[in-house]
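go over this record:
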Amino acid sequence: MQPRPNHGLRPVFCTIVPPHLLDKLSQADDPVLAAPARRTLEADGARRHQRQVTALAFAPHPPRTADAVPTKPRRTLYDCRHGTDLPGHKVRAEGDEPTQDASVNRAYAGLGATFDLLLSEYGRSSIDGKGLPLIGSVHYDEKYNNAFFDGEQMVFGDGDGEIFLDFTLAIDVIAHELTHGLTQYTANLAYQGQSGALNESVSDVFGSLVKQYSLGHSAEQADWLIGADILAPRVSGDALRSMKAPGTAYDDDVLGKDPQPASMDDYVETRDDNGGVHINSGIPNRAFYLLATALGGNAWERAGQIWFDVLTGGELTQRAGFAAFARLTVAAARSRFGEGDEAEAVLKAWSEVGVATR
């Protein structure tokens, strides 16, 4: 597959399962558990390097004509048939009837649900705001323990069946990865340190919002878990991450204990995982949860709108840290809702996780 233009942006390679968790799994005594994790780590490393190299070859996309912005998704699903050539074999196009493959149908629905939330609630047509077609590939590789967005498309593994299940089972995982594309086309947050943790957190936020929106769940009804449906029954845990209580998502003999901090008091300094982007994202995740539940009702309406305004507002820099992002959320709340409950709730949420807003 030839590299496609990326509109002048430099895409990153983002996976739902963090490297530190796969590394832990790869050291398991049981080779049935360790081998797939090791292969996944190797495959991710190779594709991450490939992304860094090919990103330099991307040419700016030519300006689009003034066509009407699409109000319907344009999805295409492919089947990798357990290979690694992308996108694979085309199996379902927009408007086609469901196939006999549940993974294809779930991916199709998840891409559509993400498109629907962005358009219906925020007036944005697809992740680029111009109706960008959404591409997904299922059955990637053998026992591949991850799902990713590579700057061009979504890719889903089937999992090893022991620790991880089919990654299309979780709509929040689909929306999380697709939101990396939204970030790429807006603030394009650098995937390193605090800006990288914000990149991951924004994907968790909108992943959870798409799940809540599709289920019709209010902030109070939501489980605030990311990836609850992809953990196999043998795992001692609820999900990959908990936005409500970072650090409590799992505590397993093989996977270890969830390392996410819930406040700046426990911020993790590390060189691993691009400076802990999947770990320290727990701090802004909890801030969003606190805001959404303080405001009540549907989290996508006020809390989600504030986050969306910051992401798309043009003032969030690529290297922004937590404090800069927090200040912008306060400003966005005041700009959209005035000096009311929303701004006060934003200030309180960030204060509770130890992030300064002044």
About this structure: Confidence is low (pLDDT under 50) at residues 1-9, 53-65. The first helix runs from residue 19 to 26. Strands lie at 14-15, 75-79, 89-93, 134-138, 147-149, 154-156, 225-226, 241-242, 251-252, 256-257. The chain has ten helices and ten strands.
